[in-house]
Specification:
Elements: H1 7-12, E1 20-23, E2 26-29, H2 31-41, E3 46-49, E4 58-59, E5 64-72, E6 75-82, H3 96-112, H4 144-154, E7 158-159, E8 165-166, H5 184-197, H6 201-208, H7 221-233
Antiparallel strand pairs: 1-2, 3-5, 4-5, 5-6, 7-8
Helix pairs in contact: 2-3, 5-7
């Protein structure tokens, strides 16, 4: 009779504390170390990034997510991870770097399901994630005048309580060179966000002087998202 190796038990007893990295008050296990330990325990172990319509991420109304599955000795376990910023807050408009970082963290968590570093996520030997005072949220302006002042300092547009985007003092200027426009995925994201915060899409298009979402310059994408997000916080 062949003895069965319990790979979970083998990985679960490894102390990974010396390989933790701290960023923004949070602790993360180094993904190269996690992969090395996994392959040492099982040289046949594999992992796979889930694709969503050909993309390595899924954009939803709640945020952007990635999924990674790790297989050890025929046991396939998957983990879903949101795309977050350096303060562990969901990103509405992540960059390729943000998505890649989340995939690496998702891989580490999927490996943890097989035992390695699982105790990290139970909070053992780790401090509570406390947001530094320097990272405290900025209070939302209590008046239109205050909002305009804040927007002027950040070169952003202001969304009034009635849902109509109002230009900041340094408003958007058309580019006669016809710059690249936002992608279909970005168009869908703006459309969903406008519905969520109760802003008429026509008002957004009017502010940017375009006839459709497809005509919004790619350089203005983040400005649109920030403006709509301000309406959510109002």
């Amino acid at each position: 009779m062949t003895d069965t190796i319990n790979h979970f038990a083998r990985l679960n007893v490894i102390n990974v504390n010396e390989h933790l990295e701290k960023k923004g008050g949070f602790s993360y296990l180094s993904w190269p170390y996690a992969v090395a330990q996994l392959r040492t325990a099982d040289a046949t172990a594999t992992w796979e990034v889930q694709r969503f319509h050909g993309l390595p991420y899924l954009a939803t109304e709640a945020g952007v997510f990635v999924e990674v599955a790790v297989t050890v000795q025929g046991v396939r376990l998957s983990q879903i991870h949101p795309v977050l910023d350096g303060r562990n807050r969901p990103l509405q408009a992540p960059t390729a770097f943000d998505i890649n970082t989340s995939l690496q963290r998702c891989l580490v968590k999927a490996i943890a399901l097989h035992g390695l570093g699982l105790y990290i996520y139970a909070g053992e030997d780790l401090p509570q994630a406390v947001m530094p005072e320097d990272f405290a949220p900025i209070p939302h302006p209590s008046s239109s005048a205050a909002a305009a002042t804040h927007a002027a300092a950040n070169d952003e547009s202001v969304v009034e309580p009635d849902g109509a985007p109002q230009p900041a003092p340094r408003g958007h200027k058309g580019n006669p060179a016809a710059p690249a426009c936002i992608t279909k995925a970005q168009q869908a994201q703006i459309h969903k966000l406008a519905i969520e915060v109760g802003v008429e899409l026509a008002r957004v298009l009017s502010y940017f002087g375009v006839q459709s979402l497809a005509a919004i310059p790619a350089t203005d994408f983040l400005r649109v998202v920030r403006s709509l997000e301000k309406r959510r916080a109002a």
